[in-house]
Design a protein that fits this description.
- With 213 residues, the chain is α+β, with helices and mostly antiparallel strands.
- It has one domain.
- A hairpin with a 5-residue loop joins strand 1 and strand 2.
- The longest helix has 67 residues.
- It starts with a helix and ends with a helix.
Length: 213
């Protein structure tokens, strides 16, 4: 219950934070729908339902019916003590009903076992769905985080580029030493490296999210 509430809270939080063609909801839906683990657990649940129905059928009566038809063709002795052609037919049918009264508690035990197996399969299915959902949420948040870092890196690069331009103008005017401009150039180079690194990290985060889908 706590995990379900946590997932719901995370869904609302991230959906409020971002809107994109591939929203968090669409990512989760796609991942859950195409997860091999989820599909396997669904198969287990269906099998559990079949086994439970089969176990419950032990309480039902068994009804059987049979029909037979016989023909006798030939000559036979009549009441006048003469022989004549005679064709006769004979039809037999029967119905039997078997009602289980006591089978040593075998049927109740089979039903109880089937119910427990089905409950376990349902819990495993829910657990797998929750795990897939949490993994997608974590991957989605990581993409958002890396995108934010990349935007910050771009902003810092723009500031450093402006600062370098400003110091070049001050150096030409003789108001600052050359070392100040060299420091600005070094800072800009570092910021450009940060932009490249953050862009690469964003791509890796997107790849990781795609693998979860």
């Amino acid at each position: 219950m706590k995990k379900t509430l946590f997932i719901a809270f995370m869904l609302m939080a991230v959906n409020c934070a971002v809107a994109s063609p591939w929203s968090l909801d669409s990512c989760i839906s796609y991942a859950v729908e195409h997860s091999l683990q989820v599909r396997q657990r669904i198969v287990d649940v269906r099998q559990g339902n079949v086994e439970l129905s089969s176990a419950k059928s032990g309480y039902l009566p068994t009804l059987g019916a049979q029909v037979s038809q016989g023909w006798n063709i030939g000559r036979g002795l009549t009441s006048d003590n003469t022989y004549a052609d005679r064709n006769t037919s004979n039809t037999q049918w029967g119905v039997n009903l078997s009602l289980p009264l006591f089978d040593g508690l075998s049927t109740p035990r089979q039903v109880a076992y089937a119910k427990a197996s089905l409950a376990a399969a349902l819990q495993q299915l829910e657990a797998v769905r929750d795990n897939v959902t949490l993994n997608v949420i974590a991957g989605y948040l990581q993409v958002l985080y890396q995108k934010e870092l990349h935007q910050e890196a771009l902003h810092q690069e723009a500031l450093s580029s402006y600062e370098l331009t400003r110091r070049k103008a001050l150096l030409e005017a003789g108001k600052i030493p050359e070392i100040d401009m060299l420091e600005a150039e070094s800072q800009l180079a570092q910021d450009r490296m940060s932009v490249a690194t953050s862009a690469n990290d964003t791509r890796l985060a997107l790849v990781d999210l795609a693998q979860l889908l």
